[in-house]
Write a structure and sequence with these properties.
Elements: H1 2-19, H2 30-47, H3 51-57, E1 60-85, E2 88-115, H4 118-126, E3 129-131, E4 139-140, E5 158-164, E6 167-168, E7 178-182
Parallel strand pairs: 4-5
Antiparallel strand pairs: 1-2, 2-5, 2-7, 3-7, 5-6
Length: 184
């Protein structure tokens, strides 16, 4: 009986989290995703010095705008975005993760993964379910207001940036998040 109550509690919590998400976050069209990706990239380039040069040096860039993360004991995260190579969208992906622990609340964030290595990008593109931290290490960069990205100093194969409402988020993580290719 106790296990049934616990399971019911978790189901209710997840229903509340999912029910509180905006309707526009479900199954966006390719055009809607691309518009969000453009806005996210524009914001990234305006807020971070050296961002455009960094993006120009990349083999590919995965941009997932408006990722919704929420939790009440059980947490969940979901968003849809696009992989761009040479500035053009080549595929659409979603991010999904779940967690369990002491958590409450929700947030909206943008995630940008910059692939600096062709081999890692190829592995990402050929994978159905690519997991951050398992299939490749993702180095998250926290850049302050007066700092800039220096492409000469960053030698990691995959570099990630997480934006909140007030700019780059310190202490954010995408470790264990799963990226899945979508058909649009």
């Amino acid at each position: 009986m106790k296990q049934t109550r616990i399971k019911l509690f978790f189901i209710v919590c997840m229903a509340l989290i999912i029910g509180s998400l905006p309707v526009s976050s479900y199954a966006a069209t390719a055009g809607e995703i691309d518009a969000g990706v453009n806005a996210s990239l524009d914001r990234f380039v305006k807020e971070v010095k050296g961002a455009q040069e960094f993006l120009n040096a990349a083999q590919g860039v995965l941009i997932i705008p408006k990722v919704i993360q929420g939790g009440l004991v059980v947490g969940a995260e979901y968003g849809e975005g696009a992989l761009r190579i040479g500035g053009k969208t080549v595929a659409y992906y979603n991010i999904a993760s779940a967690s369990f622990g002491a958590q409450i609340g929700g947030e909206l964030k943008d995630i940008i993964l910059v692939f600096m290595d062709k081999t890692v990008l190829k592995k990402f593109r050929n994978s159905q379910n690519w997991k951050a931290g398992v299939d490749a290490k993702v180095t998250l960069i926290n850049v302050g207001v007066d700092e800039s990205i220096n492409t000469m100093k960053i030698k990691q194969p995959v570099v990630g940036f997480v934006f909140g409402q007030k700019g780059l988020m310190v202490g954010a993580t995408i470790e264990g998040s799963k990226f899945t290719k979508m058909k649009k």
